[in-house]
Specification:
D-Maltodextrin-Binding Protein, domain 2, 2 domains, 11-stranded mixed beta sheet, 12 helices, disordered N terminus
Length: 346
């Protein structure tokens, strides 16, 4: 922790890459840190990174908060971003005030924190994103099973439980004339881009997107956008075509529903994404450590995370703005509003 606090004295961008193991002395330093230098309050944020040093999409969310707060003169908070493969342990060991991840902690995990600190952590929904599958407008198939989707888009379909060659007729298509080729034509794109890798995590059998090892793609969002435009134009002209794009609520594209493990067709909409029902979506949570619930700097940082300005910035980067019902739940959790239901929310 001495090294950590020393790093606070230099520069404005503070990013740490470490494993989440600290001792009790370190924990106390983080929990009590405030006004460390130059009247700046430091808020320690643990962000999920599958590999230390390679943050996942959660990094984009934190960056939006940092960029927005940096432009706001009244906010004197310096987030100390700590990338770790184990957000829960980082918070439990007192290494972070806030833990950001794409999964809500289980009852067992919450109980572990509550047992240690005699108070439960606070979970807030902060954002979400999703990818939608797009077919030719003349194709009348309404949904695709998730195992089929994964086999179609996997670079190595042998790892999948479903077959990779699928006929639209098998899925109920009635728009193909007798004798016409109706095998699904997949148009992948952006395999090496941030969005492509985000899609691959959800829509493949644990590997890379189809063609990922053959294409030297760009990492830029502009490159991804160009790939989308090309793939969409091919689908428009190919009745067998299928591709994907980042879901945006205001777009009028004809997205195809995904069948969940129970065989229920789930359309891509804001409500199905935020509820976790839609299989190709992510919901992001901020877990507030019990010892940080009364920290005024942490409270201010949380309020700014949920502000319209930050949400608008996230929306411009492919995330979904928080719907009012979820904003209300967050405000109830923060004791800013009374719950609609007398017993509160789970």
């Amino acid at each position: 922790m001495k090294l950590l606090l020393a790093s606070l004295l230099f520069g404005s961008a503070i990013v740490l890459h470490a494993s989440p193991s600290v001792d009790s002395e370190n924990s106390a330093s983080v929990k009590n840190s405030a006004h460390t230098t130059k009247d700046i309050d430091y808020v320690f944020v643990a962000v999920y990174a599958p590999v230390i040093g390679q943050a996942g999409v959660e990094q984009l969310i934190v960056k939006q908060f940092e960029d927005q707060s940096r432009d706001h003169e009244t906010i004197k908070i310096q987030p100390v971003v700590y990338y770790t493969s184990d957000v829960l342990t980082a918070v439990m060991d007192g290494f972070a005030h806030i833990g950001i991840s794409r999964e809500k902690w289980s009852d067992k995990e919450v109980a572990m924190l509550e047992n240690r600190y005699k108070e439960a952590p606070l979970a807030l929904t902060i954002s979400a994103n999703a990818h939608g599958l797009i077919k030719n407008d003349d194709n009348d198939v309404l949904s695709l099973p998730l195992p089929t989707v994964k086999a179609l888009f996997s670079d190595d379909p042998s790892r999948c439980e479903a077959k990779a060659r699928v006929d639209w007729r098998e899925l109920g298509a009635s728009t193909f004339v007798e004798g016409a080729d109706s095998l699904i034509s997949v148009y992948p794109h952006g395999q090496q881009s941030v969005e492509g890798k985000r899609f691959a995590r959800l829509a493949t059998c644990g590997g890379a997107l189809i063609g990922a090892n053959e294409i030297d793609d760009t990492q830029t969002q502009a490159g991804y956008a160009g790939g989308v435009a090309s793939a969409l134009s091919k689908v428009v002209n190919d009745p067998r075509g299928l591709t994907y794009d980042v879901y945006k609520a205001d777009h009028k594209k004809r997205y195809i529903a995904i069948e969940d493990t129970q065989g229920e067709a789930v359309p891509v909409r804001e409500d199905t994404v935020f509820s976790g029902q839609y299989p190709l979506g992510n919901v992001y949570y901020a877990h507030i450590a019990p010892f940080a619930l009364d920290n005024p700097s942490v409270k201010q940082y949380i309020e700014y995370m949920l502000s319209d300005k930050t949400q608008n910035a996230l929306q411009k980067n492919g995330f979904l703005a928080l719907p009012e019902p979820i904003m209300h739940r967050n405000r109830v959790a923060l004791s800013q509003e009374m719950p609609i239901y007398s017993d509160g929310y789970r």
